[in-house]
User: Fold this.
Amino acid sequence: MSRIYKNHLQDAAPPPPDAKPPDVAAPRKPAPDLQQENKALKRELDKLNRESLRADDKMNSVTAELQATREALREMTRQLASEKRRQERLTKRLSAHAERQAARAQRLESLEKARQAETTGHERDVSSETVRLRQRVRALEEEASQATRLLEKAAQELARHQKAAPDARATREQAEDATRRREQAERQAEIAQREVASFRRDLIQLREQHTADRTALVHQVETLSLELRQTAQRLELAALTEQKLLGDVEHLRTANRMLEAAHAEHRRRPPPAAPPPPPPPLPDMWRLRLGDGSVFGPVTEVELHAWTCDCRIGPDHEVSRDGQTWIKAREITALHMDWLVVLADGASEGPLNLFAVQHLLADGSLGPDASLRHV
Assistant:
C-alpha cells in the first residue's frame, strides 16, 4: 500500500459491521456530491457524443473532398497524357516535314548547281558561237570588200579594155562575171547578217530565260528558308510545350503521391474513441476487504463512496457485492478514484478520490510541493 496514506488508512479503517463509525453513519453530504458528479459525467458524455458526431461529419467531409480532389487529379492526368501524346504526334509530323523540306532544299541546291553548270555551258557555247559568227562576218565582209575591189578593178579593166581593145564581148562577160560575184558576195553578207541577228535574238532569249530561272530559284530558296525557319520555331515550341507538359505531369504525380499519402494516413488514423459507456448501476449493498483479510459491510453505495471520500478506502482494497467475487476498489467507476498524487521526487501514488486528497493535505500527509494528475 502507498507510503503516503498507509498509516492514514490504518487509522481510519472502517469499523466492523456492528460498530459503524459516526462519520460513516453520517457522511458529509455524499449523495448531493454524487448527484452533481453524475450530472457532470452526463454532461461530459453528451459533450463527447457531440464532439464524436462532429468529428465523424468532418472526417466524412474530408474524405469526400479528398476523393473529389483525387478524381480531379486523375482527370487532369488523363488530359495531360492525351495532350502529351498529341504533342508527340505533332512533333513527329513536324520532324518528318522538316526532313522533307531539307531533302527538297538539297534537291533544289543540286538543281541550281546543274542549272548554273548548264547556263555556264550555254554561255560558253554562245560565246564561242558568237566568236565564230563574228569571224564569219568579218570573213564575209572581207570577201565582199575583195569582190568590190575586184569589181572595181574589173570595171577599170573593162574601161581600159574598151579603150584599148575593140573586143567588147569579152569585156562585157568579165563585167557580168564581176557583177555576179559582187551580188553573190552581197547575198552572202546578207545571210551572215541575218544569222548574226538570229543568234543575237537567241542569245537575248537565253539570257532572259536564265535570269527568269535564277529569279524563280532565288524565290524558291527564300521560300524554303522561311519554311525551314518556321519549322524550327514550331519544333522549339513543341519542345517547350513537351517540357511544360512533363513538368505538369511530374507536379500532378507529386500531388497524387501526396494525396495518396494523406489518404493512407487518414486510413491509418484510428477512429475517434467511442464515448465511454455510462457507468453500470452499482448493486445496492457492498462489502469491503482490507489487506489483512478483515471484511466490513454490507453497506450502501453512498456509504462506500463516503468511505472513499474520507480516505478510508485505498486503491488496492477489494470490494464485492456477494462476498465471493472481489475486485479492486479503483476499478469501480462510481468511486471516482481517478487522481494520481505526484511527489517532488517524481514518484506517483494513487489513484485516489479527489476528496481523499483533500484529507491528505489537511492532515499533512502531502506537502505543498506535490501535484495532481488526472488518469
